[in-house]
Write a structure and sequence with these properties.
It contains seven helices and seven strands. With 213 residues, the protein is an alpha+beta fold. Strand 6 and strand 7 form a beta hairpin. Helix 2 (17-49) runs parallel beside helix 7 (173-183) and helix 3 crosses helix 5.
Length: 213
């Protein structure tokens, strides 16, 4: 797209001012997409090689999730998607707040992309026995076949390629989620049902309580 439209501009093939502006807009949008793709690839490479700098602090996951969901309110309204939030008071986790926020932003973006109008995105979170906590991001209206579930965290894998292209997905968001969660000592998995939809479930260890002197 960048090459084609820039060549058209150079050749003077964009006859009107409106056509010229549209060509430049497409070039700009595609350049931004390419930049985001390169950033995602670099991040994945850094995490896998152990070079990504991770902050180590106690993170209030309840507040982080509420803030992340709040940032998506306009997008949800624009796409006519209902939101349900069921977040319990959670223990803190030990890790990088910025990277964890990226995880749940990616999962929410993925959910919004695959939810039809008048569908529902649900974010739930709860503390579990054994010193862990789970966060689930569920959306109605999408289905991942059982044979594709093990592959959804692979780079560039798309269940619905045509829909992913339309939605501007790079195919790296879930790979980044998996790498960041594994770097925090957790795990992520996907479940899907044709009737109810799809859910991505993150499990994280709770931060250890400070030792008493």
């Amino acid at each position: 797209s960048i090459q084609g439209f820039s060549q058209a501009v150079l050749d003077g093939a964009t006859g009107t001012e409106e056509e010229l502006r549209e060509s430049v807009r497409i070039i700009h949008d595609e350049a931004n997409r390419m930049g985001a793709l390169v950033d995602d690839l670099l991040l994945l490479g850094q995490i896998e090689s152990g070079q990504a700098e991770m902050q180590h602090a106690h993170v209030d996951l309840t507040e982080l999730l509420e803030r992340t969901v709040e940032r998506f309110q306009w997008t949800l309204r624009e796409n006519r998607i209902h939101a349900a939030v069921r977040i319990q008071q959670l223990p803190t986790v030990h890790g990088d707040a910025r990277r964890l926020e990226q995880v749940f932003s990616n999962l929410l973006q993925n959910a919004v992309r695959h939810t039809p109008p008048d569908g529902t995105v649900t974010v739930r979170a709860s503390a579990e026995s054994g010193g862990t906590l789970t966060v689930g991001v569920h959306n109605t209206g999408s289905y991942i076949p059982p044979e594709d579930l093990p592959r959804v965290f692979e780079r560039f894998f798309q269940v619905d390629r045509a829909r992913a292209r339309k939605g501007g997905s790079s195919g790296l968001g879930l790979s980044i989620v998996s790498e960041i969660i594994e770097a925090h000592g957790g795990s992520v998995r996907a479940t899907s049902d044709a009737a109810s939809g799809t859910e991505f479930i993150v499990t994280l260890p709770a931060a250890a309580a400070p030792e008493s002197r």
